[in-house]
Design brief:
The protein contains 23 helices and eleven strands.
Length: 511
C-alpha cells in the first residue's frame, strides 16, 4: 500500500491520473483515490505520462511500455505518450558486467571471447548490450542481465497484481478491461526477458518461421555462449530503418522496404501466429543486401490458428467492405456477447471502416480509427482480448515505420492480396481434405478403446460384471447393453465415415 501511494503521488504530480479522474466509466471510488493522490500537488496543464513512469524506476518503465499496447485501458493519448518510453539508463561499470558474464557462462571470459568492447551499445532497465568477438572470430552482441534485477521486478509485479485485483473487483468498465489479465501478460513478458534462454528461443523460433520470407532476417543465436543471464547473437551491421536519407544514399528502395516490412509482419502474425511485438524503428535495420533485420525479442505475441483465421477474415472483410461477415465472425468468436443485435454491430463496423477505405496511410488518422473501435467495444460490452490488442498495437507500430519509408503506402491494399491468398490456402479444398482425413483417423484410432470401455460397461449375458463400471453409462444402460454397443459402434463408424466422405468430397472438388 505504501508503495502504491508513492507511485500514485508521482503519477499525480505529472498529470498522469487526470484521465482516470475525468472518465465517468471509472468507478467513483477509483476516481476519488486519483483526486486524493494529487491533493496539494502542482499538476501540469498537459499530462506527461512517459516522464511519470520514468520517475518511478525501471519496473515502471517496463509496465509503461506494456500499457502503451493498451489504449483501450489507458486512452489513446496516454498510450501514444507511453510509447516514447525508450528504456535508456546509464550503463553499469564494465567490471560488474564482466563478472556477470563469467558467472552466467561459468567460464573465464577469455575462454569464450577474444575481445569485448567495454563501452555498452545499449543499456536498459533489465539488461545491457556489448559488442564482442568470439574466439572463432565471429562478431557478436552480448546481452547481459543487470545484477539484482530479478528481485526488483518481482517486488513490483507483486504490487501490480494486488492493485489490478482490487481494481477489477470494482466491476463495471474496469472488469471488462481485465486489468488482472494485463498484469498477467506483463508478467509473461518480464519472465521471458529475465530468462535470456527464453528470449533466445523466441528469436530462434521466429527465424525458423521467417525462412519463407527472404526479405526478412533474424540473427542467429550462439547457444554455446547463452545462458539464463547471458545471450549471445550475431552482430547486425546495417542502417536504422528510420534513417530514410541514409537508406536512399545506400541505394535502397524505401517503397520496397515498406512492402517487405508489412509482408514480414503479416507472415508472422497471420501465417505463423508468432510475431515480434516490438517492431519500432530502434529494433529494425536494413542490411547491405536490402534485407530487414530485427533485434530484441523480449516482447513476442502468439495467436492460435482459429483466432488467426478469424483475424484474416476480419481484415479481408474490412478491405472488401464486407462488414456483415466481419460482424458474424465477432459473434461466432464470442467477442461480442450474444444478446446484442448483429445488424446494429454491422452498422457500427461500417461507421469505422468506410471513412478509411481506399485512403493512403498518410490520410488515415489511426487515433480516430482506434477511438471508433474502442467505442464499439464499450457500446457492445466486448471483453478485452489481450492477444488481439497486442497484435493491433504492433500493426499500428508497423504502419508508423512503413509510413516513414513510403508516405503513400496503403496498408489495406498492401495486405489485401496477402490475406486473401492465405485464406484460400487455409479454407480451400486441400485443407478441408486434410482436416477431414485427420478427424477420421483420430476417430478410428479411438475406436478400439471406446469399444473396450463399452464392453466392460455392458458385459454379455452370463458374464461377470466389471469391477467399476462408469456411473453415467451404468445409468443409461440398465439391463441388457447389447443394443447400446450396437448403437455406439454404428455411431462411431458413421463419424469416421463422414470424415472420410468429407475428404472424398474435397478430392472431387479438387478434381
Amino acid at each position: 500500500m505504501a508503495r502504491l501511494l508513492r507511485w500514485g503521488r508521482t503519477l499525480a504530480r505529472h498529470g498522469a491520473l487526470m484521465g482516470i479522474e475525468r472518465d465517468v466509466l471509472v468507478p467513483a471510488k477509483v476516481r476519488r483515490l486519483a483526486r486524493l493522490a494529487r491533493f496539494g500537488a502542482r499538476v501540469p496543464a498537459a499530462p506527461n505520462y512517459a516522464l511519470a513512469f520514468e520517475k518511478l524506476g525501471p519496473a515502471a518503465i517496463k509496465l509503461g511500455q506494456a500499457l502503451a499496447t493498451r489504449p483501450d485501458l489507458v486512452g489513446a493519448e496516454a498510450a501514444a505518450d507511453l510509447a516514447r518510453l525508450q528504456d535508456n539508463l546509464p550503463p553499469l561499470p564494465f567490471a560488474q558486467i564482466r563478472a556477470a558474464i563469467e558467472a552466467g557462462l561459468g567460464k573465464p571470459i577469455e575462454q569464450v571471447f577474444a575481445s569485448i568492447d567495454p563501452v555498452a551499445v545499449g543499456a536498459a532497465s533489465i539488461a545491457q548490450v556489448h559488442r564482442a568477438v568470439t574466439t572463432e572470430g565471429r562478431h557478436v552482441a552480448i546481452k547481459v542481465l543487470r545484477p539484482g534485477v530479478e528481485e526488483v521486478m518481482a517486488s513490483a509485479i507483486e504490487t501490480y497484481e494486488w492493485a489490478a485485483a482490487h481494481a477489477e473487483a470494482q466491476g463495471g468498465e474496469l472488469k471488462r478491461l481485465r486489468p488482472r489479465q494485463v498484469i498477467a501478460t506483463f508478467r509473461q513478458w518480464t519472465m521471458r526477458e529475465l530468462d535470456l534462454r527464453r528470449e533466445a528461443a523466441s528469436a530462434s523460433e521466429l527465424a525458423d518461421g521467417m525462412k519463407a520470407e527472404p526479405g526478412f532476417f533474424v540473427p542467429d543465436i550462439d547457444w554455446s555462449r547463452t545462458s539464463r543471464r547471458v545471450m549471445t547473437l550475431d552482430w547486425i551491421d546495417g542502417i536504422r530503418i528510420g534513417d530514410r536519407e541514409a537508406l536512399i544514399a545506400a541505394g535502397h528502395d524505401p517503397k520496397q522496404l515498406a512492402a517487405t516490412l508489412v509482408r514480414g509482419f503479416l507472415r508472422q502474425a497471420i501465417i505463423d501466429g508468432f510475431f515480434h511485438a516490438d517492431l519500432h524503428q530502434g529494433n529494425l535495420f536494413v542490411l547491405p543486401d536490402g534485407r530487414i533485420a530485427t533485434i530484441d525479442f523480449g516482447i513476442m505475441g502468439r495467436v492460435n490458428r482459429q483466432a488467426r483465421l478469424w483475424l484474416a477474415e476480419i481484415l479481408h472483410g474490412l478491405v472488401t467492405g464486407n462488414y456483415r461477415r466481419v460482424a458474424e465472425i465477432h459473434f461466432d468468436a464470442q467477442y461480442v456477447p450474444g444478446h446484442h443485435n448483429i445488424d446494429e454491430f454491422t452498422t457500427a463496423l461500417r461507421a469505422v471502416g468506410e471513412p478509411i477505405r481506399g485512403l493512403a496511410l498518410k490520410d488515415i488518422s489511426i487515433g480516430h480509427m482506434l477511438d471508433g473501435l474502442f467505442a464499439i467495444t464499450r457500446d457492445f460490452e466486448m471483453p478485452t482480448q489481450p492477444h488481439l490488442l497486442l497484435l493491433q498495437k504492433t500493426m499500428v507500430m508497423v504502419e508508423g515505420v512503413a509510413l516513414t519509408l513510403d508516405p503513400d503506402i496503403n496498408m489495406w491494399d498492401t495486405s489485401g492480396p496477402f490475406v486473401k491468398e492465405w485464406l484460400r490456402t487455409e479454407l480451400g479444398p486441400e485443407v478441408m481434405l486434410a482436416d477431414g482425413l485427420r478427424a477420421g483417423v483420430k476417430s478410428l484410432l479411438r475406436l478400439p478403446d471406446l469399444l473396450r470401455r463399452i464392453d466392460n460397461a455392458f458385459p454379455a449375458p452370463g458374464a461377470a460384471p466389471p469391477p467399476a463400471p462408469l456411473p453415467e453409462i451404468r445409468i443409461i444402460g440398465q439391463g441388457d447393453g447389447r443394443w447400446f454397443r450396437t448403437l455406439a459402434t454404428a455411431l462411431i463408424g458413421a463419424i469416421a465415415g463422414a470424415a472420410i466422405v468429407s475428404g472424398a468430397t474435397s478430392l472431387h472438388w479438387l478434381g
